[in-house]
């Protein structure tokens, strides 16, 4: 354990130690001369040489110590290496608290894997949080050499794709729960809203067939005009000519639009090829536009120009194209996700002693006031 000062210039306040000394020199107990009538005719004797003298040594010592502690408080004392080596236990949300307590023991200090790492008894409402990041944070803030145990359910949720690599060997214990978490609901098939020009209905059959291949009850509707669908549907704009500004605004606000090759619209600068044929020639290009996405066919929607319209994989390729990107995997088998050691330890900040010093200053001040205001001091 190494003591240090975070702001050594604060010790310059020690110069204030001269103040109590001057106060005691000025207010020391003095002898008050009393004149008697019979002594007025005597010749005055020479006054003896005064000597430096301090009275009330205890009070003076308290005041000097109080000033010294205030100067030390300004210097912000701290220590390095003062670490609590008490074994720590982290509990993953979803683990039964009673089972966690039984697995860790009655004397262990258990904390939830949640922001702030609350105590096990404070787990009434735990927010959804990334488990992997919180485990890395707790490991980084834990002193080197402190044992760490992590209690997890058989299936671990809310994890990231990176394997846990910590600064210490962790005891990874799987606590069997009362029930296995339910699987995530399947992603619904996208809904297509086709807008086409009057009399140009030939391409509709390809999109209708794709919607029927996605679901027994296809989510598909087609119409002429400029009516825009809800933001959760995919707009297929097959009307030739300039794309209305309303459509551009709809895309910018979060919609996904698939334009025909005859639709005139400036593509984003970040547009890239999203679908190519077997020869590597582009079929669809696109990219993000505001909060949404804009896609465009590069060929006419006829089999002669685009043979992929008749391919068995057309429906699957179209669905992958218009569906939002799948989120990264967030649920893994806990046994296969056990962390490894070997990460470099993080330097821990020094532990300040200002709070303890402030308590000492308060006690010294109370003692100084008690002695300075006692009645015996003013007697005589």
Task: Write structural notes for this entry.
The chain is of the alpha/beta class and 380 residues long. 24% of the residues lie in helices and 21% in strands. The protein has 8 helices and 20 strands. A 7-stranded mixed sheet has the order 10-9-11-13-17-16-15. Helix 5 links the parallel strand 9 and strand 10 (220-224). Helix 2 runs antiparallel to helix 8 and helix 5 crosses helix 7 (314-322). The mean pLDDT is 84.
Portion of residues in beta strands equals 15-25%
Spans of at least 5 consecutive residues with low confidence: none
The strand order across the widest sheet is: 10-9-11-13-17-16-15
Number of helices: 8
Mean pLDDT: 84
Helix content: 10-25%
Biggest beta-sheet profile:
7 strands, mixed
| Integer-rounded radius of gyration | 40 Å
What's the N-to-C terminus distance?
A: 52 Å
Q: What best-fitting shape do the alpha-carbon axes yield?
A: elongated
Order of helices and strands: EHHEEHEHEEEEEHEEEHEEEEEHEEEH
> Structural class of the helix and strand makeup?
alpha/beta
State the total count of DSSP E strands: 20
Short key terms for the protein model shown above:
20 strands, 4-stranded parallel β-sheet, 24% helix, 380 residues, elongated, 7-stranded mixed β-sheet, alpha/beta
């Amino acid at each position: 354990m190494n003591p240090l000062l975070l702001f050594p210039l604060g010790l310059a306040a020690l110069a204030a130690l001269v103040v109590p000394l001057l106060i005691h020199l000025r207010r020391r107990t003095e002898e008050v001369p009393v004149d008697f009538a019979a002594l007025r005719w005597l010749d005055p004797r020479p006054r003896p040489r005064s000597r430096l003298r301090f009275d009330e040594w205890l009070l003076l010592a308290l005041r000097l110590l109080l000033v010294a502690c205030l100067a030390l408080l300004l210097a912000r004392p701290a220590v390095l290496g003062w670490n609590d080596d008490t074994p720590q236990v982290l509990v993953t949300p979803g683990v039964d608290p009673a089972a966690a307590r039984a697995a860790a023991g009655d004397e262990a200090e258990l904390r939830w894997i949640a922001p702030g790492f609350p105590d096990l008894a404070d787990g009434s409402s735990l927010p959804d949080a990334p488990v992997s990041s919180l485990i890395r944070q707790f490991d980084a803030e834990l002193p080197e050499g402190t044992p760490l145990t992590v209690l997890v359910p058989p299936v671990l949720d809310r994890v990231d794709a990176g394997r846990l690599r910590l600064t210490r060997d962790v005891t990874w214990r799987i606590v069997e729960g009362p029930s296995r978490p339910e699987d995530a609901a399947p992603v619904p098939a996208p809904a297509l809203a086709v807008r086409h020009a009057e009399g140009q209905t030939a391409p509709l059959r390809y999109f209708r067939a794709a919607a029927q291949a996605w679901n027994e009850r296809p989510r598909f509707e087609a119409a002429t005009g400029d009516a825009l669908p809800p933001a959760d549907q995919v707009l297929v704009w097959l009307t030739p000519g300039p794309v209305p500004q309303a459509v551009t605004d709809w895309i910018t606000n979060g919609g996904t639009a698939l334009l025909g090759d005859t639709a005139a619209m400036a593509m984003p600068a970040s547009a890239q090829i999203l679908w190519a044929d077997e020869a590597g020639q582009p079929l669809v290009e696109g990219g993000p536009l505001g909060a949404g996405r804009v896609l465009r066919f590069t060929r006419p929607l006829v089999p002669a120009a685009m043979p992929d319209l008749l391919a068995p994989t057309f429906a699957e390729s179209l669905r992958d194209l218009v569906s939002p990107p799948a989120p990264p995997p967030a649920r893994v088998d806990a046994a296969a996700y056990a962390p490894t050691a070997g990460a470099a330890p993080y330097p821990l900040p020094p532990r300040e002693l200002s709070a303890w010093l402030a308590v000492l200053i308060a006690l010294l001040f109370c003692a100084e006031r008690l002695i300075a205001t006692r009645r015996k001091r003013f007697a005589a």
